[in-house]
Design a protein that fits this description.
transferase; kinase activity; mainly alpha
Length: 119
């Protein structure tokens, strides 16, 4: 495992994670239309990148398996929240962002662990 590549990939993952969370938030506030493809792990840009870059290169690391699991939970929870929003349960959906934030915090902690390994 090349450490410089890992560091760069962690930075990219962080950026893509923030973008994913921002896009989800914009769906829950009606700024961006919900797109079913956004929630599919095979079609979501971050999930695709994660699979082809992080899992492909560092999949043997336990943190990567945990990150993958968290990403799947984050997408599934986001999809459920958007469905609530679409049914008119806007406040409930927005309140559910707390769970997204919890997953995001866990995601960031795992990225920090990977970063420490790279140093």
């Amino acid at each position: 495992m090349e450490l410089n590549s890992l560091r760069l990939d962690i930075q990219q993952t962080r950026i893509k994670h923030v973008l994913l969370k921002s896009q989800l938030r914009s769906m829950l506030y009606g700024v961006r239309p919900a797109d079913a493809a956004f929630f599919g792990t095979g079609q979501n840009p971050m999930a695709q990148w994660f699979a082809t870059t992080i899992k492909a290169n560092y999949g043997s690391l336990p943190q990567v398996r945990e990150l993958d699991s968290l990403l799947n939970r984050l997408l599934a929870t986001g999809q459920a929240l958007v469905k609530e929003y679409q049914r008119g349960q806007m406040e409930e959906a927005r309140t559910g962002m707390g769970q997204i934030n919890t997953y995001s915090d866990q995601f960031e902690q795992l990225l920090q662990q990977l970063e420490q390994q790279a140093n």
